[in-house]
Specification:
It is built from 3 helices and 7 strands; from the N terminus they run βαβαβββββα. By secondary structure, it is an alpha+beta fold. The strands form 2 sheets. The protein has a 5-stranded antiparallel β-sheet with strand order 2-4-5-6-3. Strand 4 (73-83) and strand 5 (87-97) form a beta hairpin. This is Acyl-CoA thioesterase.
Length: 162
Amino acid sequence: MTETATLAESYTEMTELLLPNDTNNLERALGGRVLHWMDICGAIASMRFSSRQCVTASMDHVDFISAIDLGEVAVIEGYVFNVGRTSIDVKVDVRAENPKTGAERQTTTSYFTFVALDERGTPTQVPRLECPTEAEQELKNEAIEGRREQLEAVVDRYGLTE
């Protein structure tokens, strides 16, 4: 294992064409299918970062703010923005793209935590996160702030206490 890895090394982008088998009766993406794509993208980002097998430990709150319609392309982007000793936090964004016009809109964002595993399936140490460029540091800061704001909104919405 390397001692450090960069945010850029973890960056992952996937695309999926929304076909009928992945839609509901309104011809929009099934929420579970979108979550599945997000989980895969986050797992790839965490594995690229750590050079280890990684498993999902948790996923933060998800709001579906815009539907993905039949025939549109779902663009799923993920990157590592924070790490613990064995855990890796990944921001995953999804947007819908009209393949004919190129028009895009944001559909959802969530934050995942993955745990890196060694060959025996035991949690293992991950590299430290480095953000050597200003752009990487900005993405990291935006993700940390976005996660904080999202969690505060959930607390406020449901009357929870910290």
